[in-house]
Structures are given as C-alpha cells and as structure tokens.
Amino acid sequence: MPARSVPARASSFLLFITYKRQTMHSQDEESSFSESQIHGAFHNHFTDSVQPLIELIDSLRLIGIDKDIDLPSIAVVGDQSSGKSSVLEALSGVGLPRGSGIVTRCPLELKLRKLRQGQWSGTISYRGHKETFYDPLMVDNLVRKAQNQLAGNTVGISDELITLEISSPNVCDLTLIDLPGITRVPVQDQPDDIGDQIKDLILKYIFKNETIILVVVPCNVDITTTEALRMAQHADPEGNRTLAILTKPDLIDQGAETDVLNIVLGKVVPLSKGYIIVRCRGQSDINNKIPLDKAIDKEIEFFTNHRYFSSLLNDDKASTKCLAKKLTKELVDHIKKSLPHLTEQINTKILGVREDLKIYDQGPPLEEEKMGPFLSKIIIEFSDQINELSRTGHSKNGNIHALLRPVFKKWDSHLRDTEVSFNAKVKEMIEKYNEMHRGRELLTFSDFAEFECVIKDHVAALQAPAMQTLKGVQEIVQNKFKEVCNLCFVQYPLLKNNVYKKIGEIQLKQEVKVEKRIKEFIDMEQLVFTQDKVFQKKLDESDIHQMTGLERYENLREDDMVLTSKGCALLDTRNLVPEKLALYYEIIYQRLTDYVPMLLILFMLKDAAKTLRHQMLEMRNGADVVELLKEDTDQGRRRADLKQRLERLTKAQELINTRR
Ligand code: GDP
Ligand code: MG
C-alpha cells in the first residue's frame, strides 16, 4: 500500500515514517520497516472518533483562534542536552539544530500541518520576518539564523517565539514547542541570571492548562534531582498533563539498569501519565550520518535485545514509535478534556470583545462591495446634520445662532453708536453751510445735496465694519461645518480633509458673493431715499413737533401765527434740522441692522449648506471608496482588530457547537 493512502490523521510516529520516505530517500538508505508494518501498528489505534477532534483543533487554529486563546499543544522541557531536540526530530521528521551547549535559544513552535495534497513546504516566521522554503534540509540553518536574529550571535536567549510551520501531505496536525534547555552555570558572556531567565520562559508555557508537558530526562542522570521534572510538578501538581521521556538508555552505566527500570515503571517518582523510554540518534550516529529511519530500526533492535528493557517494549513503555502513539492519544484526550474550558473561554471572550466594540463606533465594513453603500450612509448622515444646522441652527454642540447673535449685536451696536457722530456731522455741516454758503434765502436749511454728501460719507464708512461682521460670521459657520464634519468622519482622515477643503472653498465663494452684496447695499444707501410715508411716520412718532413748540400755539389764529414773532420761530427751524435729519439715519439703521445679518445667514449659512450637501451627494459618484474610508487612526486599527477577533471567536464557537 503506498504511503499516500495512509489515513489523514495518523500518529506522530507515522508522520515521521512517511516524512522520511519522501525526504530522506536521496540518502540511499531504505527503511527496514515495511509499510504494512507501519499501517498495522497505527491504523487501528486511530478510530474515527478521534480524528474529528484533531481536525477541530486544526480548523480552530486555521481561523487564527490561537491568537485569542491557547489551544492544546505540547511543550518539550528538559535540561540542556537532555535530548529534547532529538525527541522532537524523531517525532516530526524535521532536522532541528542539535548539538552540545545551548542550541535552542528561543522557543520554537513547530506546527505540523497536514495537506490534503501538494508538496512539502516550510514557513519560518519571527519578528515580522516570514520566509517560505521547499527544502527540508534548510530547516537547521534557517532556525539558527532566526535565533541569531532574536537572541544574538552567541549564547544569549530570548523569549521571542520562532514559528516553524511544516506543511506536507505526510505529517499530521500536531503543535510542539521546543524550549531552551535548563542550565545552571552561565557560560561565556551569558548573564548571571540566565538560569532564571530560562526557567521563567519555560514556566510561562507549562503553566498553561492547554499545554501537555513533555519532560525529557536522560537515563544517565539522577531523575529525583532533575530540575525539569520539579518544574513540571510545580506547574502541574496532579501530573495530569505531564509525560516523562527518558533518553539515552544506551549511555547507562552498567549496573544502573534496574534503577532506570524502576523509574520507567513509576516506582521512583510516580507520574499519572507515566514514562516512556526512547533511544535517539547519539552524536556518533550523527557523525556516521545514520539517517532517521535507520535510527528507528536501531532503536527497536536496541530495546528488543536489551536484557532489562525488552519487556518495556511490549508494555508500550519504550521506543519513539510508542511515544508517538502515546503522545497523540494524550493530545486527543487532552483536547476532549479541554473542550468545555475552551468553549467557556470563547464565550467569555466574545462577550468581552462585544463590550469593547461598543466603545468604538461602527466602523467601515471590511468587504469592498459594502463600502460604497456605507460611504453613502455616512455622507447622508452628515448632509442631514448640515441641513438641520442650516434649518434650525442645531448641531450636537449647541445652536449656531447663539454664536452668531453676538456678532450681529456688535454690528447693531456699531450702527447705533455712529448715530451720535452722524448727528454731530449734520450739525457741523449746517453750521458750515450757514457760515459759508448761505445766500439771501431765509434762515432755513434746504440744501439737499449737502445733506446727501454727509449721508454718503457716513454710509461709506459702514462698509468696513460690515465686512468685519462678514468675517466673523464666516469663521463661525466654517468652524461649525467643520465640527459636524469632524464628528461624522473622525475615523476617516482622507474623507474629512476632502470635506474640510470643500467647506473652505464654498465659504470663500460665498464670501465673495456677500462682499459684492454688501457693497451694493452701501451704494444703495448712498442714494438717500425713503418713501414719504415712511419718513412722515418717523416724523409723527418723533418729538419734533413738541420741540418746535407747536402745541403751545395750537389755539392761535393762522394769521397770528405768521405775524407774531412766535410764528416766525416756527419757520426758523435751524436748530431742529439735525434732529429731523437724524430721523433719516434711523431709517438707514433699520435697513442695515437687519439686512446685513439676513444676507449673511442666507449666503454664508443657508446657501453654503445647500451647496455643501449637493457636493457631498455628488462625491459618492465615482469616489475611491476604499481610499476615502481608509482609517489610519489607532481607533480604526483597534476596531478592525476587534471585529476580526469577534468574527474568529464566533466562527470558533460555531465550529465547536457543530462538531459536538
Ligand atoms: P537538547 O539540548 O535537549 O535539545 O538535546 P539534543 O537533542 O541536542 O541532544 C544532545 C545530545 O545528546 C546530542 O548530541 C544527541 O545526539 C544526543 N542524544 C540525544 N538522545 C540520545 C540518545 O538516546 N542516545 C545517545 N547516545 N545520544 C543521544
Ligand atoms: Mg535543543
């Protein structure tokens, strides 16, 4: 039976065997394992009930849920040179950096991914670097390079994770983490606390409930004093997640075999998950280029022929093959056990993310096809707010008329205040006229042209304050528009700037129009005109009659009036001319004090709002929505991140629910 027809979810051991067939083939040695043997050993072990579980974790990892919660995985811990990398190598079929001294200097996450079809490929990623390669023999070098990048070229360590993902049709899904070995004595330039640093790093991993702890202990050391085992017991006091592996059985001193046997049988340090003894490639095997498959043969041969350990082989307590079987079983059991906790964690996270999302307003949709309608929606919302502002003056931060009123009041006060100077000017004009230009006419003032001059001068001087009023209003309206824009488009800097520009341009155009109108007003006022009825009404309402003393002479006969000196006084109205003319100023005042603000409201607020709304609606046509809705604020990023998390978690929840 060809290796490819092996069931999708096979044991870790199987993955090694099949891997070897593909990659080590070139190295001339052929496995003495027959394929039927491989199948016979493992096919029965994997029932259909466990496969969906591994697949579940696989699909959870595929949607990236491991960014949010810890998924079941296996961490390998042990003293330096205890054989961790060798065990991993045997399990995964991937040649990792090995040797004496500190070789593993960063946590290495080894993700084995089963492909339904396709070629072997590896992807190494660390600190923003990502590299895909297609030659398994490159693993060693690339891992060393990554470690040099993260932990320096010498002997330092780092807790930054290197992820090595191996995808192949001939591996099964398993995640193993190789951790730096425990050391006691700093070497070379290692910091004094190197031991503590490594211990902290290991604890970080093994304290997680989702981690199966693989403690690697060489047979030729005293297990009771092994730091790794002690740490595992500390992190997992019940020993539910701890599996011990004894390595280097070939290096045991003669006579110590029974002690080791007792350990494997759990008689020295009992562990609920027990012990497995394996023999990996030793340094001499590597030097002799013994390939992995031959090493497996040698291992079986070693145990079969071992005087003390051969019985362990039958009890499933020895060999890498047995370890692979056991490990996969443990992982599956562990997944089963973890599921309720996993579901609980996912549910709690979903609630948390939903709460967090509430803080951040609804952002743009992530799908491009939904962006156009979304842009329309926010533009219409903005337009509505501008419309409301123009219609009622209301906006989220108060009414614009409250801001405009003081500006208009100032204009009004200015007009009022100049009344005094106007009167003074009129008086001065009359006096000057009487002095310089009066001819033989009676003592009355009747030169309309002179009066017109005064009016013209005075009105002309009103242009500057009117323009100032315009500026004041323009600033308020522009700021208010921008404020609404900012509230509506705060997440979209590009869109916001676009609208800001539009607001500025529209205001500028309107300003030019209003300037022209104000000049027209001033020009019109220089005509000196009002309807007779209007002026008559002003005269009637004024106290001019009283001032002329007319009432006092009401009973006089008409001829008396003319003849008496008192009657003459009536004709002589010199001293009342300024008052009469002042009445005309009242008319100018009334016209200007209202018209200028009305003009400003109409052009700067209402018409500007109309134009802006029009332009905004046009903006939707042919707009580069992706660009306009680009968020570069932290808020945008955070929201996008939260949305993705929520999507991931919800998907995970669905996956778990449907597979139960
Ligand atoms: P690590 O530092 O824990 O990762 O240990 P390594 O896997 O790098 O192994 C350290 C050394 O022990 C290497 O030279 C291995 O070849 C050797 N080694 C590992 N396992 C065995 C074994 O079962 N028997 C023998 N003889 N040597 C082994
Ligand atoms: Mg190592």
UniProtKB/TrEMBL annotation:
<dbReference type="GO" id="GO:0005525">
    <property type="term" value="F:GTP binding"/>
</dbReference>
<dbReference type="Pfam" id="PF00350">
    <property type="entry name" value="Dynamin_N"/>
</dbReference>
<dbReference type="GO" id="GO:0008017">
    <property type="term" value="F:microtubule binding"/>
</dbReference>
<dbReference type="InterPro" id="IPR000375">
    <property type="entry name" value="Dynamin_stalk"/>
</dbReference>
<dbReference type="Pfam" id="PF02212">
    <property type="entry name" value="GED"/>
</dbReference>
<dbReference type="GO" id="GO:0051607">
    <property type="term" value="P:defense response to virus"/>
</dbReference>
<dbReference type="GO" id="GO:0003924">
    <property type="term" value="F:GTPase activity"/>
</dbReference>
<dbReference type="GO" id="GO:0031623">
    <property type="term" value="P:receptor internalization"/>
</dbReference>
<keyword id="KW-0963">Cytoplasm</keyword>
<dbReference type="GO" id="GO:0098793">
    <property type="term" value="C:presynapse"/>
</dbReference>
<dbReference type="GO" id="GO:0005886">
    <property type="term" value="C:plasma membrane"/>
</dbReference>
<dbReference type="GO" id="GO:0005737">
    <property type="term" value="C:cytoplasm"/>
</dbReference>
<dbReference type="GO" id="GO:0005874">
    <property type="term" value="C:microtubule"/>
</dbReference>
<protein>
    <submittedName>
        <fullName>Uncharacterized protein</fullName>
    </submittedName>
</protein>
<keyword id="KW-0342">GTP-binding</keyword>
<feature type="domain" description="GED">
    <location>
        <begin position="574"/>
        <end position="660"/>
    </location>
</feature>
<dbReference type="InterPro" id="IPR003130">
    <property type="entry name" value="GED"/>
</dbReference>
<dbReference type="GO" id="GO:0016185">
    <property type="term" value="P:synaptic vesicle budding from presynaptic endocytic zone membrane"/>
</dbReference>
<dbReference type="InterPro" id="IPR019762">
    <property type="entry name" value="Dynamin_GTPase_CS"/>
</dbReference>
<dbReference type="InterPro" id="IPR001401">
    <property type="entry name" value="Dynamin_GTPase"/>
</dbReference>
<keyword id="KW-0547">Nucleotide-binding</keyword>
<dbReference type="InterPro" id="IPR030381">
    <property type="entry name" value="G_DYNAMIN_dom"/>
</dbReference>
<dbReference type="InterPro" id="IPR020850">
    <property type="entry name" value="GED_dom"/>
</dbReference>
<dbReference type="GO" id="GO:0005634">
    <property type="term" value="C:nucleus"/>
</dbReference>
<dbReference type="InterPro" id="IPR045063">
    <property type="entry name" value="Dynamin_N"/>
</dbReference>
<dbReference type="InterPro" id="IPR027417">
    <property type="entry name" value="P-loop_NTPase"/>
</dbReference>
<feature type="domain" description="Dynamin-type G">
    <location>
        <begin position="68"/>
        <end position="340"/>
    </location>
</feature>
<dbReference type="InterPro" id="IPR022812">
    <property type="entry name" value="Dynamin"/>
</dbReference>
<dbReference type="Pfam" id="PF01031">
    <property type="entry name" value="Dynamin_M"/>
</dbReference>
<comment type="similarity">
    <text>Belongs to the TRAFAC class dynamin-like GTPase superfamily. Dynamin/Fzo/YdjA family.</text>
</comment>
